[in-house]
Inverse folding.
């Protein structure tokens, strides 16, 4: 009797006539094959003898890893250098700082502080702003102080204007804000161009009082909605922590096993495919910029088409001798145990992800403290999607990219191709150490290619690690996609509430 090894267990090949039964009914927990229509196992989707002939993998995977590392390192390097060629923590000049006003990020920074001032004293936060070495932050701090101490704020702004000179960008912006807060006529368009939401607040301070009251009330209402949302997410995180503890006990007792398909030498193709996808992604991102400029649309609008087009790289395994049906099954493009059941597992997985994500956020705050973000020595991590949310069409496009396209494309690439590759090549065996190392390495690359910068790496890695664990748990990519989509949807919704409410 011949024994055939499979992932997580062994089974016996008794008779050749049993083979059709395995194909038709599946082995153990039946997973629907995405293309053939057959039901296959979540633990070991094909018998070894039923697989297509293996492709001999040459030196191409090593070259692919080199491409991946170069692109990841290059992305981090580019993110640490600003458009003027200075490092991200360099002291900004007047011209660099003054142009920061006309940005939705300014609203994200200002409105919560105004809403919070309706509930409690924020003197310590305002003091940090006016002590910040970046003069544009000092101007913003003085405008917020002007909501309760107008005369003091006007003097502070005029002092900045006198020190910088009204011919300078910052000096002109400070003088314009002081003039508006004094109730004198100003060019509203110019004020908003220089200081964004803070320019509108300066005009409200110098108005009749009703405008300032309206802005305060709106900011306070926005903050209430955010607090309710944060409380709901916190409750979900508590449930996720409990579920995580239960899951750990189940794993320790051996009741929960991996749902990945068994490793195969042909999986050397998947790092090649991932490297090719990274190249395609960068090409499509540049193409989106060209299309946005030529068609006079936003970059996110162009990305709606260009981002998913990067998945053309999935044709590579077929060109190298593997069928697409086999590739799809290997990288998790299947219905799993049923679409609704997998989606439900995604919701549970999202709750379980929250405690892990919390650890990552703490890590990001530690890096921000080391970099001196609160002292103005460096800019806090941010995403370009924030500024896109100010325009209605761009906001719709950005929402589609963040909530639909990113979960679809990135899960196929990172948790489908890259994580499967690392798990296949792991020299640490099939145990938890292999899972952890593969998840961490996948998470590091996932964080590195995102535009938030190096300080955001811990928070992004924590999300990616949780998504990799969900991939290990379910086999199918549906649950990680749902988790990714929920996370991005909540983040975009929170930003829209701050900016638009």
């Amino acid at each position: 009797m011949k024994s055939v090894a499979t992932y997580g267990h062994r089974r016996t090949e008794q008779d050749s006539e049993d083979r059709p039964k395995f194909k038709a009914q599946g082995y153990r927990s039946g997973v629907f094959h995405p293309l053939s229509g057959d039901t296959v196992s979540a633990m070991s989707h094909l018998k070894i003898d039923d697989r297509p002939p293996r492709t001999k993998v040459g030196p191409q995977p090593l070259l692919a890893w080199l491409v991946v590392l170069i692109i990841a390192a290059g992305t981090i390097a580019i993110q640490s250098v600003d458009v003027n060629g200075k490092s991200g923590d360099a002291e900004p000049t007047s011209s660099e700082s003054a142009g920061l006003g006309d940005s939705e990020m300014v609203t994200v920074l200002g409105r919560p502080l105004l809403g919070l001032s309706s509930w409690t004293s924020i003197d310590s936060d305002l003091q940090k702003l006016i002590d910040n070495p970046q003069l544009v932050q000092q101007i913003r701090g003085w405008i917020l102080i002007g909501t309760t101490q107008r005369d003091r704020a006007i003097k502070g702004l005029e002092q900045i204007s006198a020190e910088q000179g009204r011919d300078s960008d910052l000096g002109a912006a400070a003088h314009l804000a002081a003039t508006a807060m004094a109730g004198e006529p100003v060019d509203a368009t110019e004020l908003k161009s220089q200081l964004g939401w803070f320019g509108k607040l300066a005009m409200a301070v110098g108005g009749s009082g009703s405008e300032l009251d309206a802005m305060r009330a709106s900011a306070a209402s926005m903050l209430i909605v955010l607090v309710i949302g944060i409380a709901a997410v916190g409750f979900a995180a508590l449930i996720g922590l409990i579920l995580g503890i239960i899951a750990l006990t189940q794993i320790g007792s051996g009741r929960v096993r991996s749902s990945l398909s068994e490793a195969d030498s042909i999986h050397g193709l998947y790092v090649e495919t991932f490297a090719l996808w990274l190249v395609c992604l960068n090409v499509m991102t540049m193409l989106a910029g060209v299309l946005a400029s030529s068609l006079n649309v936003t970059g996110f609008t162009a990305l709606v088409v260009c981002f998913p087009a990067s998945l053309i790289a999935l044709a590579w395994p077929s060109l190298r001798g593997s069928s697409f049906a086999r590739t799809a099954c290997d990288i998790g493009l299947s219905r799993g145990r049923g679409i609704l059941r997998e989606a439900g597992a995604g919701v549970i997985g999202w709750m379980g992800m929250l405690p892990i994500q919390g650890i990552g956020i703490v890590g990001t705050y530690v890096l921000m403290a080391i970099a001196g973000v609160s002292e103005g020595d460096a800019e806090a991590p941010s995403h370009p999607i924030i500024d896109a949310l100010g325009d209605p069409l761009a906001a719709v496009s950005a929402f589609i990219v963040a909530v639909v396209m990113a979960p679809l494309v990135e899960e196929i690439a990172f948790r489908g191709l890259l994580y499967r590759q690392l798990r296949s090549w792991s020299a640490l065996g099939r145990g938890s150490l292999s899972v952890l190392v593969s998840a961490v390495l996948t998470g590091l690359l996932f964080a590195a290619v995102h535009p938030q910068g190096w300080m955001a790496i811990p928070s992004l890695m924590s999300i990616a690690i949780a998504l990799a664990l969900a991939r290990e748990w379910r086999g199918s990519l549906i649950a990680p996609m749902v988790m990714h989509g929920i996370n991005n949807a909540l983040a975009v919704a929170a930003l829209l509430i701050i900016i638009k409410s």
